[in-house]
From TrEMBL:
Residues 258-288 are annotated as: Disordered. The keyword Cell inner membrane does not apply. It comes from Methylobacter tundripaludum. Pfam families: MotA_ExbB (PF01618). Residues 127-229 form the MotA/TolQ/ExbB proton channel domain. InterPro entries: ExbB/TolQ_transport, MotA_ExbB_proton_chnl. One of its GO terms (biological process) is protein import. Residues 258-267 have a biased composition (Polar residues). This is Outer membrane transport energization protein ExbB. The lineage of its organism: Bacteria, Pseudomonadati, Pseudomonadota, Gammaproteobacteria, Methylococcales. The chain crosses the membrane at residues 46-64, 153-181, 201-222.
Length: 288
C-alpha cells in the first residue's frame, strides 16, 4: 500500500502538467535566443558606399560644369568680337553661326525688334507696352533662362558638401557604439580589442570630409563664375538696348543671319528674298 502511494505521488496526472517552451528552457539556462541584428560593421560599410556614391556624383558634376563654363566663355568671347566688330546694328543682326548665352540674348533682342517692326506681335499682355518695354522684358526673360541653365546642378553640389561630413559622422558613431558593445561582451578593454573597431569607424568621418571638400570648393568656384557671366550678360543687354535706342528700335529683317528664319523652310532649304522696291524704301525712310 505504501509503494502504490509513492508511485502516485511521483507521477503527477497529465492534466496537471504545464507545457514548457524553448524560450523557458533557454531562460532557465541563463541565456536568450539569438535574434537577427544589424551589425555595426554593416552600417559603417553602407555609410562608406553612400559617401563613395556622393564622390562620384561630385566629380561628375565638376567635370560637366567645367566643360560647360569653358564652352560658354569661348562662345561669349567669339560672339563679342563679331558683334562689336560689325559695321552697324543692322550688320550685327545678320551674323551667322553664333552660339552661347550672349548670342541667344542678342538673337531674342533682334527677333523682338523685327516682330515689332513688322507688326507680327499679337495684342495680349505679353506684348503690352512700347518697343523698349517689350525689348527689356524679352531680354530679361532670356537672361533668366540662361541663369537657370548656369545654376543647374549646383544645388546637388551644395547638398553633398553640407551632408557628407554628417553622414560620415553617423557611421563613426555607430561603429564606436558597436565597438563598445564588443568590449562589454568580451570583458576586456585592451588596445587590441579597442583599436581595430574604433579605427574602422573613424574612417567614415575621414571619407565624409574628403567628399565634402571638393563639393564645397566646386560649388563656390562655379557660383563665382556664374556671377561673372551674369554681369557680362547684364552689361551686354544694357548696351544692346542703347544701340537699339539709337536706331529708334527699328531694324530691317536681315538678309542672312541667325534671326532670318523666314528665308528657311521647314526642310532647311533657303529661298531667295525679293529686293525691296523703290516705294518700299521711301515708305521705310518716312517711317524712320
Amino acid at each position: 500500500m505504501t509503494e502504490t502511494t509513492s508511485a502516485a505521488t511521483a507521477i503527477p496526472p497529465a492534466a496537471n502538467q504545464i507545457p514548457v517552451s524553448g524560450a523557458d528552457i533557454a531562460s532557465a539556462a541563463g541565456t536568450t535566443p539569438a535574434a537577427p541584428e544589424i551589425t555595426s560593421a554593416l552600417i559603417v560599410d553602407a555609410t562608406l558606399w553612400i559617401l563613395i556614391g556622393f564622390s562620384v556624383v561630385t566629380w561628375a558634376l565638376i567635370l560637366i560644369k567645367g566643360i560647360q563654363h569653358l564652352r560658354i566663355s569661348q562662345h561669349n568671347r567669339s560672339y563679342g568680337k563679331k558683334f562689336w566688330g560689325a559695321q552697324d546694328f543692322q550688320a550685327a543682326a545678320a551674323l551667322e553661326g553664333n552660339k552661347g548665352p550672349a548670342a541667344r540674348v542678342a538673337d531674342i533682342g533682334f527677333t523682338t525688334l523685327i516682330e515689332a517692326d513688322g507688326g507680327t506681335t499679337t495684342h495680349d499682355l505679353e506684348h503690352t507696352g512700347d518697343r523698349q518695354e517689350l525689348l527689356d522684358r524679352r531680354l530679361r526673360q532670356q537672361m533668366q533662362k540662361e541663369r537657370g541653365a548656369l545654376e543647374s546642378g549646383l544645388a546637388i553640389l551644395a547638398t553633398i558638401g553640407s551632408i557628407s561630413p554628417f553622414v560620415g559622422l553617423f557611421g563613426t558613431v555607430w561603429g564606436i557604439m558597436g565597438a563598445l558593445t564588443s568590449i562589454s561582451k568580451s570583458g576586456s578593454a585592451s588596445l587590441d580589442v579597442v583599436a581595430g573597431p574604433i579605427g574602422e569607424a573613424l574612417v567614415a568621418t575621414a571619407v565624409g570630409i574628403a567628399v565634402a571638400v571638393p563639393a564645397v570648393i566646386g560649388y563656390n568656384f562655379f557660383i563665382r563664375r556664374n556671377k561673372v557671366i551674369w554681369a557680362f550678360l547684364d552689361d551686354f543687354a544694357i548696351d544692346f538696348v542703347h544701340l537699339a535706342l539709337k536706331t529708334s528700335f527699328l531694324i530691317k529683317r536681315p538678309v542672312s543671319g541667325s534671326v532670318a528664319s523666314s528665308r528657311t523652310s521647314g526642310t532647311g532649304a533657303k529661298h531667295p528674298v525679293p529686293k525691296a522696291s523703290h516705294e518700299d524704301l521711301q515708305a521705310e525712310g518716312a517711317q524712320i
